[in-house]
Amino acid sequence: MAYYHHRKLFTPGPVPIEKHILAIGSEQPPYNRTEEFSQFTREIIGGLQQVFQTDGSVALLTGSGTAAMEAAVLNFLDASDKVLIVNGGAFGQRWCDLCKIHSIPYEALSMEAGKDLDLLQLEEQISRNKYSAILINAHETSTGYLYDIESIGRIAKEFNLLTIVDAIGTICADPFFMDKWNVDVAILSSQKGLALPPGLSFVAMSARAVSRLNRINPKTCYLNLKDYLANQERGQLPYTPAIGILVQLHQRLLDIKRITLPILIEQHRKIATEFRDAIADLPFSQLPERQSNALTALVCEDMNALSIVHHLRHHHDIEITPNGGDLKDRVFRISHMGAQRKADILTLIKGLKEVVFSGQLI
Fold it and tell me: DSSP characters for 7-38?
């Protein structure tokens, strides 16, 4: 049952984790209802503000990124709103699903997979409708597409929209400036660019978002963000958090502070560029017109994408990411996040070339 311990991960969460971070995860978690842990929590919040590039509040949740997305819908929107959702793939659709479940009126601007968003079309649609908010994924990880959040935030500000951004797949891999780009709510989780185990997610809020938060009474206990902010004033969380991952997060944020965020982003860019250059002669095309450093989404010309995924898994102990839906037979994805080394990337490229040139797929 330990087969997976030897697989090299090129998946966009979980990602490979540095050994010293893994070692922290094997230690006994501390008791959290102490003043020492309160100070520890405050330090984590400060580190996350730096990662989000915000002076605003950040709520610490134990749950996946979808939990944070749902928290955003529950805490900042209600039935009196009408929101625009930019839907460019599986995670854009998740915004639609959440709004439907919680009876938030919405319209979706649907995009073809990997195609560039027409900002003039977006602005025109917003100008013709009385939206109160826009929901978008900064990086649609099902296609690798990176939205121009800076320009979208500028448009949203012009029309006084609350801007809610799932930045889970982009922060630490691409530039993201929450305050500078007029983002009101930004969401992150632990298992992507932060390169930690899954289990934590974070909701960062502008002052405007906090003001709106205080006017809404969400029908939730566990995801009530007002409770988190109130408890975090004393350095605590309202419910027992994933303490072990918080300890790992604390160290990871110290590492990022030491490395600096711009250098970490540049490391992602370099890995992505070198990988894309190395496979330029293989019969794959790159899906998105505007790519993130976090991953490369490849379109198969004459092969089945799922067969490539299975072949690398069973013959090379390499885990890459398949797609679902209409893209499942055509597209697979390679992550560039986490503790990837040059040797790992060369092993992956060798495996891909074997798949292409051997003609043998399982």
Answer: PEE-SSSS----HHHHHHHTSPPPPSSSHHHH
Among 117, 79, 109, 77, residue whose Cα is nearest residue 92: 109
Query: Look-up: residue for tokens 């500000």?
Result: 157
User: Which position has the token pair 């690398």?
Assistant: 312
Say how many CA atoms lie within 13 Å of 289 toward its Cβ: 11
What is the separation of C-alpha 96 from the centre of its chain, rounded to a whole number of angstroms? 17
Q: Provide the terminal-to-terminal Cα distance of the chain, rounded to the nearest Å.
A: 22
| Domains by residue range for the chain, with CATH | 3-15+260-358 (3.90.1150.10), 19-258 (3.40.640.10)
Among 2-11, 35-44, 170-179, 238-247, the range scoring the smallest mean pLDDT is 2-11
Rounded distance between C-alpha atoms, residue 98 and residue 95, angstroms? 5
Phi, psi of 25 (to 5 degrees): -65, -20
Q: Is the pLDDT of residue 359 over 80?
A: no
CB 37 within 8 A of CB 66: no
User: Do the bridges between strand 284-286 and strand 83-87 make them parallel or antiparallel, or are there none, so unpaired?
Assistant: unpaired
Tokens of 101: 């479940």
User: Looking at per-residue confidence, does 207 or 289 come out higher?
Assistant: 207
Average pLDDT in the 125-150 region? Answer: 97
d(CA 236, CA 203): 16
pLDDT of residue 3: 53
pLDDT at 185 over 80: yes
Q: Is the dihedral of CA 166, 171, 174, 179 positive or negative?
A: positive
**Does the pLDDT value for residue 167 go beyond 50?**
yes
Q: How do beta strands 8-9 and 83-87 pair?
A: unpaired
- In the chain, DSSP assigns E strands to 8-9, 57-62, 83-87, 106-110, 133-137, 139-140, 145-146, 162-166, 185-189, 200-205, 284-286, 295-300, 318-319, 321-322, 331-335
Check if the beta carbon of residue 247 is closer than 8 Å to that of residue 30: yes
On the question of pLDDT at 16 being above 90, the answer is yes
